[in-house]
Design goal:
The chain is of the alpha+beta class. It has a domain of 124 residues. It is 37% helix and 33% strand. The protein has seven helices and eight strands, in the order H-H-H-E-H-H-E-H-E-E-E-E-H-E-E. The chain has a six-stranded antiparallel beta sheet. Strands 7-8 form a two-stranded antiparallel ribbon. Strand 7 and strand 8 form a beta hairpin. Helix 5 crosses helix 7. The radius of gyration is 16 Å and the shape is globular.
Length: 186
């Protein structure tokens, strides 16, 4: 298990360094995400290209569905921002991300705002090319954390659910983020 964690950490570090330029060319990040990043206390960002995804999927050798889906994915970019106090980030900045995606021709598939009246929300956008999903983005905003994931490549809407819970992509069912109960304490 420790070897698996080490290999994944090594792959993450290599991909973040080696493919930072590729991310800027291949994955469009809205300005609103850049603004959130500037105001966050801590930030994590990493990118996997297709070969890194294939290698990472081999760590889960018993998951044929994940490997099948990854065959059509060309890249994954994940950004996580942590804020020191609850609801410290600007909710209007989150709204600007939606506006940027819509202006760029992306479709807004899911929007789920938490019922407690605070700013938490889950959003899913996708872009079509030749009648197939070519990219999708997920934004999950909680009290102290914002997670943003962009996946590029040929992928069906059903396959998006197969990626949830893997490679830092939150698991979403029915427009609601499902908490990860499999986290292990180290």
């Amino acid at each position: 298990m420790k070897l698996r964690t080490f290999v994944l950490a090594l792959l993450t570090a290599i991909s973040a360094f080696k493919f930072a330029g590729a991310q800027q060319r291949g994955v469009w990040i809205p300005q609103g995400i850049e603004t959130l990043q500037e105001s966050a206390l801590s930030k994590s960002e990493f990118t996997f290209d297709h070969s890194m995804l294939v290698f990472a999927s081999k760590l889960e050798s018993d998951n044929d569905e994940l490997r099948r889906v990854i065959a059509g994915v060309s890249g994954v970019s994940i950004r996580r921002f942590h804020f020191p106090q609850s609801w410290q980030y600007d909710a209007e900045t989150l709204n600007s991300v939606d506006k940027e995606y819509r202006l760029a021709g992306w479709k807004h598939l899911t929007y789920n705002r938490e019922s407690r009246g605070n700013g938490g929300a889950t959003n899913l956008w996708f872009r079509m090319e030749n009648n197939a999903v070519s990219n999708f983005a997920i934004l999950v905003a909680g009290a102290n954390e914002v997670n943003f994931v962009v996946v590029s490549g040929s992928i069906s809407p059903l396959d998006i659910s197969h990626l949830g819970g893997h490679l830092g992509i939150p698991k979403i069912e029915g427009g609601v983020v499902v908490p990860n109960t499999d986290r292990r304490l180290r």
